[in-house]
Specification:
single chain; HTH cro/C1-type domain-containing protein; 63 residues; mainly alpha
């Protein structure tokens, strides 16, 4: 008997978070910056250097 039954939504949200994290880490690696910098940029907590901004823009335009 399972006393702590998982809901479909809880598992779905975990999956979404994991996929977002994985994709974000992949993109950061592809453009040569740490994942945390990309995360902070995504949330508006920091700006990217021009070279990183250009690399990210190119990646997003081509993938």
């Amino acid at each position: 008997m399972v006393t702590n039954k998982l809901s479909q939504e809880e598992v779905r949200q975990k999956l979404i978070r994991k996929l977002e994290e994985g994709k974000q880490q992949y993109i950061a690696k592809q453009i040569g910056i740490p994942k945390q910098i990309l995360s902070n940029f995504k949330t508006g907590k920091r700006e990217l250097w021009d070279s990183s901004l250009e690399a990210l823009n190119n990646y997003l335009d081509n993938h």
